[in-house]
Amino acid sequence: LHHAGLRSYCASMADVLSLTRSDRISLHRPFTFDAHIQDLFPPLTVGASVHIIPETIRRDIEGIKIFVHENGITGGSYTTSLGALLLEGTPLPLRYMTLTGEKMAGLVCGDVQLFNGYGPTECTDLISIFRLEKGIVYDNIPIGRPMANSWCFITDQYGHLLPCGMAGELCFASVQVGRGYWQLPEQTAKVFADCPFIEKDAWGRKMRMYRTGDLCRWNEQGELEYLGRIDNQVKLRGFRIELGEIESRMMKYDGIHQAVASVYDGQLLCLYYTADSDIDEGTLKEFLAQSLPDYMVPAAYIHLDELPLTPNGKIDRRRLNEQNNPIQSADMQQVSPCNKIEETLLEIAHDVLGREDFGVTDNLKLLGMNSIHAMRIAIRAQQKGYAIRVAELIKYQTIRQLHVDGISMSRWLNVQDKGKPIVVYVLGISGETESCHLMQELQDKYRVLLFENLTEIYTSLSDKNVDMLMDDYLSILHKELNGEGVHAFIGHSFGGEMAYRLAGRWSLLSDWRTQVVVLDNVPWTDSMENFWKLLKDRIDDKHLTLPKTVAELLEMSILIKDIVIQMRRTSNVCPSYDLPIHLFVSTKHSGIDDVFNYINEMDTEENRTVLSEILDTDDMARTIDVEGMWHKNHKGSLTVSYIPDTHMGMLKKEYISLYLDSLTL
């Protein structure tokens, strides 16, 4: 993507939404999701203010409503399902709401002006938008007309234009179209091309076109209607899922003859298969979970004698869902509640899911529970005086496990195959999403015991320091390992220090030798505190005023680091252990990469230059000698490798093999 496309997008959105400097826009989407630019850049270009909704309430309907009222929010964008929930109940003082990411159906515009937006990441977010008329009921709510400086075309499989009413592939030509996929020329060539219908733009440059892979048509009013995906790639709860990848992995399981992945009723990922014998579905699910991310592991498994075929011999996917209802066919145990809490939560789940044929041990996800249902259950439970988190409900999936397990500090990532050695992965303050590639590839060779992110369990930590937390971790290790050894302890950033501390104490208390992989951390320094203090001092010295979004992002980063600083201050200095260490150091350390992301968000070119100058100094780029500190303080063997990337960038997939290769068996 390039700046000209973003600038055009911002001008178009500001015009369509009638944004002014008096608007106060909520930003709900995370910064890792491209849709966040809807509520970030266009408002700032007209002088409006942007209010970032805290992570802690992003799935809390009542919390978001309170945030809207307290901050005088006038507009914002949300996923279609979440927006529909926000529109229920007490009216919101909003001027408008933009809903995107899912097909809109059944909504009628009332006092809040609704917009239905559509667009892929490859084209700088939205490429079309539709303004719903108040009180009108639509059979198929359109996705609107193209953005300014843009054109939409409906083509057949040969690239020929189709007339109004005929369905075909939506192609988009615009300054918003990206240049292509980074270092993927073959994939770029498949969907990016020079537009054959408009040769040049107003400046004489070739017009780029993107093939969306979506099935659409023009209606009689000249609006686009979205019909679905052309291929088997589907979107479920915000994630794009390649059904063929699930099917390919399924076919590697012994005994499977045929496999078809499908999304039932737009809410449940299910897998139909044929096999020569009965297969334990729990084991099958665990097998898939070893190589697929959580959102691509099917919730329902349907064993069929044969798969239906079309007249030309292909598998008839449409008939699969029509003839088989995975929700109704689920084997329900209908276990009764054993206490008042379970009784209350079960009543709420019955009401939210609209059925009563299940009990406290039945899988709610298999019963059709999605993230929106989970939010509703959590809201109702809180109204009854029971505080439960949406993340826990989605994770545990049954009412009994939710009540018994609560928040856990650790969990196994994969099947406990006794033939595999054990690796302990300590997240520390690193996110599970950022660490997903490393965790996924570890599971191919090892049983992985994960210690959760500290921010996820922070409320249960109370006044604990690192030493006290290590006591808890050691107790968990002794319980989970049951006398087995640990091949290696691994951690990134502060998780690296925690992995080192835990490995050292565990080796002293057991007869097992182990090793540690540390990704960019030094336990013997307050480098993070020094970095953030130096950054704040430099900003104050330059009298640099940060835009609200940048100031809040900076404050969030400092808050996370403060967790580490506080835990270190109240604990003993990290001892030196006689353990083999594999240290990997990023070439840009100490948080510098985090702050570089703020430069483009500065409000003026002058301020961007000032912040760049602050960061472009030796003492800011590296406040400590990571390798030197380890050589000085660690008494065991030490191997050091440098990764040519940032502190967070070193978790990219291309570097994972280096970390795994360092683990000697």
TrEMBL record:
<dbReference type="InterPro" id="IPR000873">
    <property type="entry name" value="AMP-dep_synth/lig_dom"/>
</dbReference>
<dbReference type="GO" id="GO:0043041">
    <property type="term" value="P:amino acid activation for nonribosomal peptide biosynthetic process"/>
</dbReference>
<dbReference type="Pfam" id="PF13193">
    <property type="entry name" value="AMP-binding_C"/>
</dbReference>
<dbReference type="Pfam" id="PF00550">
    <property type="entry name" value="PP-binding"/>
</dbReference>
<dbReference type="InterPro" id="IPR036736">
    <property type="entry name" value="ACP-like_sf"/>
</dbReference>
<dbReference type="InterPro" id="IPR045851">
    <property type="entry name" value="AMP-bd_C_sf"/>
</dbReference>
<dbReference type="GO" id="GO:0005737">
    <property type="term" value="C:cytoplasm"/>
</dbReference>
<dbReference type="InterPro" id="IPR029058">
    <property type="entry name" value="AB_hydrolase_fold"/>
</dbReference>
<dbReference type="InterPro" id="IPR042099">
    <property type="entry name" value="ANL_N_sf"/>
</dbReference>
<dbReference type="GO" id="GO:0044550">
    <property type="term" value="P:secondary metabolite biosynthetic process"/>
</dbReference>
<dbReference type="GO" id="GO:0031177">
    <property type="term" value="F:phosphopantetheine binding"/>
</dbReference>
<dbReference type="InterPro" id="IPR025110">
    <property type="entry name" value="AMP-bd_C"/>
</dbReference>
<dbReference type="InterPro" id="IPR009081">
    <property type="entry name" value="PP-bd_ACP"/>
</dbReference>
<protein>
    <submittedName>
        <fullName>AMP-binding enzyme C-terminal domain-containing protein</fullName>
    </submittedName>
</protein>
<feature type="domain" description="Carrier">
    <location>
        <begin position="336"/>
        <end position="410"/>
    </location>
</feature>
<dbReference type="Pfam" id="PF00501">
    <property type="entry name" value="AMP-binding"/>
</dbReference>
